[in-house]
Amino acid sequence: MSHASDGSRAPLTLAGVNYAYPSGGDGGGRVYELSLQVERGGMLAVVGPNGSGKTTLLRLAAGLLLPDSGQVSCCGSRTSVASRAELARKVALVGQQPALGFPYSVIEVVLMGRAPYLEGLSLESEEDLAVAHDAMRATGTDHLGGRVFDSLSSGERQRVSVARALAQQPELLLLDEPGAFLDIREQTRLYDLLEELNTSRGTAVVSVLHDLNLAALYFPTVALLNKGRLHAVGAPAEVLSYATVREVFRTDVYVAINDLTGQLNVLPIKGGAGNNE
Fold it and tell me: Helices (H), strands (E): how many in the chain?
């Protein structure tokens, strides 16, 4: 993981990217001169205060937003010229999963991930079904196939959504706060799953997180955004230092290495936010 270089086949490259929402749109989330590269098989956590540009970065990476200037490339395709179907065969995006409001079964939801490979109104093939079932086995959701998606727990819905993303057979998996409404057990199951998929399939993973401890525990590389700019990128111990976290989040914290995990822990200090306005 590094600042952007050539990286023509890297899963994700952002080179000098600027973006501001149109007048009347989102007042935050701008990005300025953003350069970042995710290598094949990489895992990157994107962290930062609210409004720092995290979700904007993810939407740019997915091709849902096009930069005002600079260039975004996914797996060798520039998002500004690639078709939606072309990008969807390379990049999958998972957000927080509310109910769908329609009684789709789990297998129907997972098969939605095969849409980029279907032509016109053609139905799924045996190969599409095989890919979907493989994705469900990989995410531990194969026993849920006949259940209605909206009847599932939040953790189950999130794992099914990852299965749908895997059914796209992407080289790059993007996630926007996927564990935001999950309890600690489901968060652990989800990030264990993402780590396993990264290891076993070589899928590059980029996830936006608010939880700095999860970022440090699961991701070898962390990108810290602040006011739309890349403040730091590197190993968690380098990026999430006491001085940096205090400066960017404007609150006092306790930073130390966990004796059990060997990973960084970042804990807020009671009343610390009031001292750093």
Answer: 9, 12
Burial group, residue 251, by CB count within 10 angstroms (0-12, 13-18, 19+): middle
Is residue 138 within 8 A of residue 163, CB to CB? The reply is yes
Contact by Cβ (8 Å): 16, 69: yes
Report the distance separating Cα 268 and Cα 277, nearest Å.
Answer: 15
Tokens 């895992």 locate to 43
Q: Within the chain, which residues score under 50 in pLDDT?
A: 1-7, 24, 27
| Contact residues for 209 (Cβ-Cβ < 8 A; gap 6+) | 45, 46, 47, 177, 179, 215
Ranges of H-type helices in 176-229 = 184-201, 212-218
221-226 vs 229-234, strand pairing mode:
antiparallel
Residues in the chain: 277
| DSSP per-residue letters across 70-132 | EEEEETTEETTTS-HHHHHTTEEEE------SS--BHHHHHHGGGGGG--TTPPP-HHHHHHH
